[in-house]
Design goal:
mainly beta, 4-stranded antiparallel sheet, 7-stranded mixed sheet
Length: 128
């Protein structure tokens, strides 16, 4: 059974940084387009960033572009989200998602419900 496990969340002050990780228990990690979504308090789950199977192509929501960097290491079955210049509005549960069928370029406009696999999330709290 494929599992996605996020880590790296925590409490950070405004302007600070965090790096999230997502480890996939799958032998064919490079078959999956990967993405980060988040769910802010009282809001629906929303797209944050996506990375292609090779890692060469990346996509970001406008709200995080220039501050967050998504990457992956296929040798380690791991995806990362480096978050810089964090703001209180970034406070959310961050979820790792994977999909063998998706083209990473389409993930920004994909309904979260259409993603194949999900992790349980990691909480990021940014204090002002």
């Amino acid at each position: 059974q494929v599992q996605l496990v996020e880590s790296g969340g925590g409490l950070v002050q405004s302007g600070g940084s965090l790096r999230l990780s997502c480890v996939a228990s799958v032998r064919t990690f490079n078959y999956y387009a990967m993405a980060w979504f988040r769910q802010r308090p009282g809001k629906e789950r929303e797209f944050v960033a996506a990375v292609s199977r090779t890692g060469y192509a990346t996509y970001y929501s406008d709200s995080v572009k220039g501050r967050f960097t998504i990457s992956r290491d296929n040798a380690k079955n791991t995806m990362y989200l480096q978050m810089m210049s964090l703001e209180p509005e970034d406070t959310a549960v961050y979820y790792c998602a994977a999909d063998r069928r998706a083209n990473a370029a389409n993930i920004p406009t994909t309904s979260p419900g259409d993603m194949e696999l999900w992790g349980k999330g990691t909480l990021v709290t940014v204090s002002s």
